[in-house]
Amino acid sequence: MNSSEGLTAIVWTSEEECENGHLKIGENGISIKLESGRVLSSQKPSNSLYRLIDGPFMMANRVFFDPILFVIRPYAGDVGHVVEDVFPPSSGGFYGRMKLGGKKAVYVVQQIEGDSKLWLLIGDPKTGGVFESQMIHAYEAEAIKLLENKDFQNLLDWSMLENDLEKDRIDVLEVLDEPSPSWEDIAKLVSDVTIDNLKLGVSMRDTLSQFVPDSFPDSIREELMAFLAFANRPEILMEDPVDFSWRTYSFQSFGNLIRGHLRCILSDNPWPPYIKYLRLAEKKRLQRPIVTLDANIESPWDIFRQKVNEAFPNWTGIAINSAKDLTKSGKVITKMPATRSRAKKSKRVWKERLAAVSYGLRIRGHINSGTIGLTDLVYLGAAYRWPHRHMKFITKLGSSESNPPHIHVMTMPKTAAERVKRFLPNVMEVAWSARTANLDLYDHTSESWYVSVSRIVESIDRESSRRRLVKRFTRSSQRDTYQLNFDEAKVAGLVSKDIFLVDFEKPGRFNYWGLSGNRIHSILANLYQRGIVDITYGVSDAQLVSIATVAQGKSKYITSLTESFLDYSATSLAMLNKSSDMVVILSMLPEEAAYELVAELPRYGILKDVMIRCMRPTAFRSFTFDLYHRLLKDDGTWDDDVTAFLSQARSKRKELSESNA
Fold it and tell me: pLDDT of 546-579, one tens digit each?
């Protein structure tokens, strides 16, 4: 519900004096215009209290006018029942509407007189009206404040590209105003598809619009028409792959398709049947692509895009070779190995450069928490799923049952960790962790990963030790606790998320953080030298799927299993407890190997009295982008206020189905 005229409120300017007014919300704050003409604004503290008396927005309590939180977040209006991936369910279902929303809204949180709960206003910055208002818990307010990695990435993109996006979009779409392609060019696109009443139009748009289904959204249709127009233009081979990718950044589908099309041209491969796939996708008869479980592909145009991607030449091996070369250096390298100048002189290097962009050549850091005075905790369960300031990441496991288990990883100072463990005795403190990327497991001949499931499974027959793990996988040279400064905290968060090497070629890419590429490199090299961060290089590969393994048993078997995962999976993050009798491992494996492992490993563990659960993560939310920066206080100490996490009261399982009722 939206009141654009402003909501009627009673305002207490002092204990004795009150006055009616109208509340409105804007991008810069909230205000109440009193009948006397005076205006209260959140930009200037007033110490006033107010109470809404407008129909559905009526309050029972007085609320302190000065906000304690004011942020811009998405919002969806009347969308009916929304399934939320939080537990307990949110008050009135507001969190689901926030996560589902597309329009921009203002979220205002205020304190309530005489109540530990808080007051939430969600408003329309365009009209000043209020969408909804209600009481919420303190932990819900903290969750509103936090941004997931993908949201931060959008902010980073927008802060750098906002002045170029519209210009780049116009530049790309100008091709549709050019003269129509010839019948010869059309024949290359159409292939063996018969299109009734096909005509050459005056412009590219006129002709190509006959190939892209009218049922697709207009913006998607324009991207696909622009792609078909560029497909016949050899001049796109003359532009540097990185420059072209940045220029098409606002067209995610277009850029993705063009890069794949270029791989066809440079590999002398026939093009995929674009028009045939488009027509099958429109009729929902296009065979679904093989994708990782976390890929949400439902719309016909997304199915088309992914299906075409599978038909493009596989250059994963080229990108992996670049990552392997970086790994062999034993150094922190933040530059693309295939440089712009070398690519101008060599077709081979040009291909390496395109592969690095297409498959996301990146650097990732694993922070050794103990070296900086922090502790990692792991909670495995269905409750306490609300994001909070110490949340590192959370992943849902298994099927989408009513209340599936989650792996919830937190990072906090030791004092806070002790409080959490007293509240939740079954939470696991991580005594040692490591992350590996085994690029040598990629077989270039078969263009696939070779993972020996038998070696992982049979590792339970062998023995290892915590000392051996530390010796093999820990490079730390930092003996005393090192205190990060604010710039170092920013870089620790950035590299924990992944930094694409192509980002270091874009001037101003890190302006949002107030850092330059050179400054990031310098800080990262120092943290690496001190043993605070371990570095791996990698690429994206849709062949790999995620597996979560939780194992408990005798330490000699648990450490052996941990070692084998770190050695024989494509990538693994292992988190081991103090007594080394429990481990949580998140791995990336080829699909077939993943199925085999899920079937064999738990059964084999029973023979050694080792309890093993292997589950497929079906949703993943990460909050590492600003993790260390948000936890570092002005006095240089770590934030140990875990109230938001501890206050998440456990609810009855049946309440989940009543969410948003």
Answer: 999 999 999 999 999 999 999 999 999 999 999 9
CA distances from 525 to 336, 363, 530, 581, 647 (A): 16, 12, 9, 34, 39
Task: Output phi, psi for 332, to 5 deg.
Answer: -85, 115
Helix (H, G, I), strand (E, B) or coil at 419: helix
Chain position carrying tokens 């791996």:
536
Condensed to tens digits (0 to 9), the pLDDT of residues 281-333 reads: 888 888 766 654 344 567 888 889 888 988 999 999 999 999 999 999 999 99
Question: How many angstroms from the chain centroid is the CA of residue 221?
Answer: 26
Tokens of 158: 């927008």
Reference 310, options 147, 530, 541; nearest CA is 541
Which of 57, 45, 53, 43 is CA-nearest to residue 19? 53
Residue the block writes with tokens 């402003």:
6
Give a three-class secondary structure readout of 439-469: HHHEECCCCEECCCHHHHHHHHHCCCCHHHH
Q: 0.85 exceeded by the pTM?
A: yes
State what percent of residues in the chain have pLDDT above 90: 65
Number of other residues whose CB lies within 10 A of the CB of residue 240:
16
> Is 81 exposed, middle or buried, given 0-12, 13-18 or 19+ CB atoms closer than 10 A?
exposed
Virtual torsion, Cα 592, 598, 603, 607, nearest 10 deg: 90
HEC profile of 245-312: HHHCCCCHHHHHHHHHHHHHHHCCCCCCCHHHHHHHHHCCCCCCCCCCCCCCCCCHHHHHHHHHHHHC
Is residue 467 within 8 Å of 560, Cβ to Cβ? no
Closest by CA to 594, choosing from 619, 562, 611, 572, is: 572
Adjacent-strand bridge partners of 367 = 533
Q: Residue 538 carries which side chain, given as an amino acid letter?
A: G
CA angle (554 as vertex; 549, 555 as ends), nearest 5: 80
Determine how many CB atoms are found less than 10 A away from the CB of residue 628: 24
Q: What is the mean pLDDT of residues 78-100?
A: 86
Which two tokens mark 534? 């371990």
Q: Rounded to an integer, what distance in angstroms lies between the CA atom of residue 217 and that of residue 595?
A: 37
Rounded to whole angstroms, the Cα distance separating 482 from 467 reads 23
The CA distance from 305 to 309, in Å, is 6
Say if residues 381 and 421 touch (Cβ distance below 8 Å): no
Helices (H), strands (E): how many in the chain? 22, 25
- The identity of residue 587, as a single letter, is S
Copy the structure tokens of residue 536. 């791996």
Is the separation of the CB atoms in 248 and 255 below 8 Å?
yes
- Specify the DSSP element, H or E, that contains 189: helix 183-190
Looking up tokens 């530059």 gives 335
Query: What is the Cα–Cα distance from 117 to 61, expressed in whole angstroms?
Result: 11
Q: Which residues contact 632 (CB under 8 A, 6 or more apart)?
A: 484, 486, 489, 638, 639
| Spatial contact of 373 and 414, defined as CB atoms under 8 Å apart | yes
- Read out DSSP for 43-74? TS----EEEE-SGGG--SS-EESS-SEEEEEE
Bridge partners, residue 257, by sequence: none
Collapsing DSSP to helix, strand or coil, 367 comes out as: strand
Estimate to the nearest angstrom the gap between the alpha carbon of 162 and the chain centroid.
20
Residue with tokens 């078997």: 557
Distance, in Å, from the CA atom of 509 to the CA atom of 246, rounded to the nearest integer, reads 11
Residue whose structure tokens are 């502790």: 375
Q: Which amino acid is residue 352, in one-letter code?
A: E
Residue type, 467: R
Q: In angstroms, rounded to a whole number, what is the distance separating the alpha carbons of residues 392 and 233?
A: 46
Q: Whole-angstrom Cα distance, residue 211 to residue 187?
A: 12
